[in-house]
Amino acid sequence: MNPLAAIHVANKQLGLDEDTARDLYQRVTGKRSLREMNDRELRLIITEHRQQGFKPAEKGLQGPFAKKLQALWIAAWNLGIVRDRTDAAMLSFVKRQTGIDHTRFLLDAEDSAKAIDALKAWMTREAGVDWSLSVSTAGWLRQSGAKIALAQWQVLSVHKAVDPRGFREFVREKAKLVDQMADRDWPAVMNALGEMIRKAKA
Asked: Which of 78, 89, 98, 129 has minimal CB crowding within 10 Å?
């Protein structure tokens, strides 16, 4: 957002009428008109707005379910079932499933479940991801990243493109021993496997 646009948004957010805004401009820069100001002065106005409580809109995805949906979308891309990994493509998917335009408006757990469950079902149907848990399941296998990575390994085995050393050794090389893996460790493995899948399918 350019400085002029940011100032107009801030004035609206802070409820400043034209006279009050001009008084603020005068106090901060000695000028009452934005048109008379240089870039540095405009930025001083924005700094003053922030001190008064102005919060610029965050860039990118927002909302309580955004990170989970984005992680699943990228996982689906790494499985080779999503062709476009961009947030815009993911938002189109979310809208098709929920009728809601953006993750920032996706506030209800029931609505978010429609998109999350549809994405998980797609990953199961197209790439064999097994989301089920059993009491006997090993600790590391209970992590979503492990389930996705194993499904990626299966996709690669169909294309005869797996690392001959085996899954555990591949994981150890990319991150650490599977028994020591945490949720935060799996993306490095999934991204590496995703590159292999895209090459195998090319």
From this structure: 89
| CA-wise closest residue to 45 among 82, 99, 89, 8 | 8
Summarize the confidence of residues 45-72 as an average pLDDT.
Answer: 86
Confidence of residue 83 (pLDDT cuts 50, 70, 90): very high
* Range of lowest pLDDT (80-94, 135-149, 152-166): 135-149
Mean pLDDT of the chain: 90
What is d(CA 152, CA 189) in angstroms, rounded to the nearest whole number? 10
**This prediction's pTM:** 0.70
- The tokens of 63 are what? 């909302």
Give the separation between CA 82 and CA 127, rounded to whole angstroms. 11
Question: Which secondary structure element, helix H or strand E, spans residue 173, and what is its range?
Answer: helix 167-174
Q: Report domain extents, the chain.
A: 3-51, 66-201
Burial class (CB in 10 A: 0-12, 13-18, 19+), 176: middle
User: CA nearest 146: which of 176, 125, 122?
Assistant: 176
The torsion angle over the Cα atoms of residues 145, 151, 154 and 156, rounded to 10 degrees, is -70
